[in-house]
Records
---
Amino acid sequence: MADLIVTNVRPHGGAAVDLAMKDGLIDAIVPTGGEAVADRVLDGRGLLALPGFINAHAHVDKSWWGRQWVSYGGEATTQGRIAHERAERDALGIPSVDATVAVLREFLRHGTTATRTHVDVDLGVGTRGIESVKEAAAALDGAVDVEIVAFPQDGVLRRPGVLELLDRAAEAGAASIGGIDPASLDRDPVGQLDGLFEIAARRGVGLDIHLHDGGELGAFQFELIADRTIAAGLQGRVVVSHGFGLGDVAPARQEALVDRLAEAGIGWTTVAPVRTAPLPWRRMLERGMHLGLGTDGIRDLWSPFGDGDLLKIALGFARLHGLRTDEDLARVVELATSSAAPFVHRGSHGLSVGDRADLVLLDAENVPDALVRTPRREVVVAGGRVVVEDGELVI
């Protein structure tokens, strides 16, 4: 007997079915209308069904969500944001388990059931942030599947001891280690990348590098990353986050870079921020690159914006890239759901038998309608457990 059956739902806007779930997985899919027998039966009311959203780029360790409003301060540059965060985070109790739980609950409210999150590792906090995130995920009993990237927000080589911290984090179980702006922040792209790749290869972990640098400076670092990925045999295990420079360069240069990145099996995550250049996303997908969407920080010392709704990020991506057709709009929703599976090390993530029982129900006619209206998530099921009902958290 199933643990949970959700009746009368329309996967991706198609024909109505019943979804049976057992032991946290989708166990059976049958036409709706038959007798449903399970520990619990939930009426899906003919709502549109999507897989749970996968947030491929988050920072859940340093939000002030749910706390007193914090006014924006410091300089509006990468260096300025880092300095401001270092100066103010202790006063806000960052990192903390409670704040991280609050963010993860908002993820669930909006239908996100898995996330790849960067967690700061530096000389000020050590690896405390990683422990806080692990404890927060455990407090929600795994409702959000959390994958951790140990992230050197304040730089790598310019802070002696950070490479050792990243090595310790990898040894302790971080799925990936991170890097940030090897050229403009550390001012030693070869040194930073060589150090990071050595740890990743030796520890058998992934590598995820924030790259804010634009134009040819960014392009130069993409080439360095691709070269090292191939040399180290890490194809499929390296991700570039943001990568604004790819949208800045001339079309022929852009095409050649995508081909090289695809050859190296580099994945890519974007938060589709306003006022940035569109990515060559069609060519990236055609060449087999994995492309994921993320929320980035949510109400933190970098920005007061964000609420954890990945569907809104997908809408921003569609607007940034001027998308209009049903096919394109539906493809963007796939970026936020099923095709983001590799970012959390899943072989598949969807509404098929054997997939983790992550389900989001929305009152929408079809997938494009859901994207452009971003209606509330009526029901969210995470790992076979109902966590949102009638739009409200129940955990």
---
Amino acid sequence: MNNDVTSAGLIAAISEGDAELVVQPVVLAGGSGTRLWPLSREHCPKQLIDLLDGESLLEATVRRLDGVFPHAATSLPEPHTAVRKAAPFVVSSEDLRHLTADRLGRSGMAARFVLEPLARNTAPALTAVALAASGDGDPVLVAMPADHLIADSAAFAAALEEAVTHAARGAIVTLGVPPQRAETGYGYIGAGLPLGSSGARSIEHFVEKPDAGRAASYVASGNYLWNSGIFVVRASVWLAAIAQSRPLIAAQCTAAFDNACVDADGTVHLNRDALAACPSDSIDYAVMESVGVNARLAGVVVPLRSGWSDVGAWDALWQVSEKDEHGNVARGRVLFEDATDTFVHSDGRLVACVGVQGMVVVETADAVLVVAKDRVQDVKAVVTRLKAQHSEVARQHRRVERPWGWYDSVDQGERFQVKRIVVKPGGRLSLQMHHHRAEHWTVVRGTARVTRGDEVLLLSENESTYIPLGMTHRLENPGKTALEIIEVQSGCYLGEDDIVRFDDQYGRVQQA
């Protein structure tokens, strides 16, 4: 690998015969979105929630790439004369693999996966993908968070095509958003000399999350942009930059990739032991703060004027949503009476707001949030307290999606729990047993194939069976329509971690 990360060094390293420039989208889908609780949970974070009228932020992120690069070939540096856009890499956690794939699959979107056994932030994630993508020449990586909202797709496409042109020449490029206020939660990019007439400028320096005073001075100067979190860089440039700035990240990610397990469909499971020894760091801190300061790291910022939002908290969702004449946003069954500037989301029950101003109310099946709109950043503290109490409402919803379907915990009390379980056609739960609970299953709809110890039963509607404590069992749907059962659990402990898996087609044998 060429360790010279200056533009001149990279241009010299490009093969003269390489006419095709490969652009490799990278979707970073490992965020937790705690400030959007209770809709966003640890096991179903904000990028996987249908926040956009039936579409998740993840789907919107992949979809907006459809219209990018139709004209990019005319502005490419020599020797490139054509662009090939590769299928995106999605970086996600092992735990969210199936839910992430389901969100993409329902929209017919193809993707390749790099899976992390534990979270290590965006710098290791991009490093792992750069290693995986290097087999396709030296592609330009387009790294995008999966949980951002962009209103103007055409403006996004134009900015991204400009960014790819600079990245192809060896620069580390970020898309910068003209600041609307003195926001302390974003990184700021100090813009330097203009690069042509497109609006792109060199990066003088990068400041991650300044205090309020410095943020105000940056906005007042007119010379700074918000960092959008979208980075465009050649794979070789990134690998050289991370090796120089954070050599331990580079070394451990290389070990995690070299010792990874790869499925038949190309899914990369990074090695847990190697990744556990890798420092957790963001792209911003690991590399971008050195761009402009270190002469060997050439940086370019391209303005992004497209209605960008990171949808980081409930007030951001209120800002980008359609409002009534009083500034209110209603999602679901909501009634306003003499209310203004209020956001209400209801998953099911009617929520009536009378005489309130500047509030956020979010109703789900198992939790209700009420918070002043100017205090939504403090929702994260609530989630921290819930996790400290080992509360399930911080981790997952009452309705929990699984690779085989979903279940809803409709009732529970001392020594019992009732679940509604729906299994997709062809779905198959793991072969398992429980140490602390017995289960009663009644088929409500469809046909169930039940493994119960050494026997296999075929149950139709209104038929039932009993699974004693400690008995090996499995539930399958052999039919072409959904299978729905009611499960009644009884025992001294009913937690989801009381599962011993012996066989599982979704690769969860080692998980609790």
---
Amino acid sequence: MKNILNLLLRRTEYKSLYRRIFYTLMIMVIYIIGSNIEILSTANGNKNIDAFSNIGVAAMGGNFTAVTLFSLGLGPYLTAMLIVNLLALRNPEKLMLQTKKERQFKEKAFTMILAIVQAYYLLNMYVKHGDNRIHIMAMGMLVLIAGSMLLIWLADQNTMYGIAGPMPIVVMSIIKSIMQSNAQNDIHLKIIVWIAIACILLFCAVLLIIIERAEYRIDYRDILNTSKDKQSFIAWKLNPGGSLAIMISMSLFMIIKAIIELCIILITQKQVLTWMDFKHPLGITVYMILLFSLAYFLSLLMLNPKRKATDFLKSGNYIEGIHPGKQTESYLTHKARKISLFSGIMIVIIIGLPFYFTLIIPVLSKEIYLAIQILMLIYISINITDVIKNEMYFNRYKNFMNKYW
């Protein structure tokens, strides 16, 4: 083991990867420090925060159990990016004409609006009525929004100089959430129940890995490939959206819930919204619909059959029996919709369906929430592993590509 480690450390083509990993570790240290800096006393705050709220916020690098510098997490930013991209999906040609500055302005504008809503929602749970409430709320929102922007900047820096962008921050947040929930709740179950939960979790994890690794292939004719033995094909993953749909669906659900609750507070001065709670079937159903919709549209966005059809038209490649242009676009769009539909259904079954079991078997709700967090952790870890593999692959041939690029 020692010899293998020494060999890896001496491999010059992996030095860039080591620098990226070290940079990511430094950002993780900053995140841990910032997530433990409390900016508001929560001693008299809301102790009955929904368990799903903790999971949803943790899936975006945030924390609602305490008001810290990074409590908002990356939720406002990733949700804003999703909104901008889905709006642009209606007119891809217009998106191509937009400059980077224009896209960033739209993303930052949406991010600021969502951050203000979430900051007010979070502080409203902890800041009681009093003479200094307005000042405390104003200063608290300012610090929370600044902390969220700092975390977004760290995620951007990690994308450029580290590994996997915002994903390591999310992984650290989920691990912290799991540790906090286990520390607060003593779980005592029979050994047979633990074995059953472990078997179901293992089955779901294996199924998730298979779906993540599997791909759908569409054969086509490459005019530059004259070999009869080697067939060219389009390789589309069965789950193109990856873990992004799961992460953003939870953040978007929390934002929608926050907006509805804030509207009710302003109109009726009441804060209770039971039907959007995960102890209510309607709340779970709303989340399931949201999860499916995001998984479906994100998959379509990632596959982008229209751009693939345009590339075929430019290169001269074609699918046998399908005319180039509109017919190829229609054919690829039909295939992309089928893949996206499959992706949405499987994600809802694996991640969303277990939430209904918390209603059927409320005694096991804590264990089910724990299992969902572990599944999310596995899923995001798969994506991080893929990023590291790609980095190792490109580093191995970096000298060759630099020579001829």
